[in-house]
Amino acid sequence: MNLRTLLLICITFLNLKGYSLEVQILHPCHFQTLAHQYYSTTQVMTVGQITLQLLSQQSFSYVANEAAVHRILNSPIGNEALDIVNDHTMRAYGWCYLVNGVYSEDFPSQKIVGPYDTITWYFGFALYDKGQWVRQCAPAHEAPPLAFCS
């Protein structure tokens, strides 16, 4: 068997296997795994679709749709998610996701995932300082919201 034949067999096997997506959700306060699942599918999916599948299989509370994860485990939303540090600095907390370790600004309903992608959801914050948003989706464990993660 030559190298070309072996390569074609490997490609065929991988194509028959379909998508193998990994999805994990990290605890909002201590960043340990809260939920984790592998999915095999031949369908193209969005981050929002596959995330809702994982959430629907869990026993913890959540508020989410295909476009966003709003709350997991009673994490703060709305005004509760704002941390006013001083007169010119504020943190706004919420759920963020990575695909293969890279932050995406796309809504989960718009982000298409491909074969062997890994989706990681984590609780993060955006930092507003002196009239500008200077950070987006920084991990919340860097500055945990004390009212929630005490």
- The number of helical segments is 2
Q: Averaging pLDDT over every residue, what do you get?
A: 87
Strand content: over 45%
**Secondary structure tally: strands:** 11
Unreliable stretches: 5-17
Number of domains: 1
The CATH level-2 architecture is identified as Beta Complex
**What percentage of residues falls in helices of 4 or more residues?**
10-25%
- CATH hierarchy, class: Mainly Beta
Termini separation comes to 62 Å
Overall geometric form: globular
SS-based structural class? alpha+beta
Order of helices and strands: HEEEHEEEEEEEE
Return the CATH topology.
Ferric Hydroxamate Uptake Protein, Chain A, domain 1
Q: What can be said about the biggest beta sheet?
A: 7 strands, mixed
Cα Rg: 19 Å
Walk me through what this model shows.
The chain has 150 residues and is an alpha+beta fold. It has one domain (3-142): Ferric Hydroxamate Uptake Protein, Chain A, domain 1 (Beta Complex), CATH 2.170.130.30. 17% of the residues lie in helices and 45% in strands. The chain contains two helices and eleven strands; from the N terminus they run αβββαββββββββ. It has helices at residues 3-17, 47-56, and strands at 19-26, 33-41, 45-46, 62-65, 68-72, 82-86, 89-99, 102-103, 112-113, 118-129, 132-139. The strands form three sheets. Strands 1, 2, 6, 7, 8, 10 and 11 form a seven-stranded mixed β-sheet that branches. Strand 1 (19-26) and strand 2 form a beta hairpin. Residues 5-17 have low confidence and may be disordered.
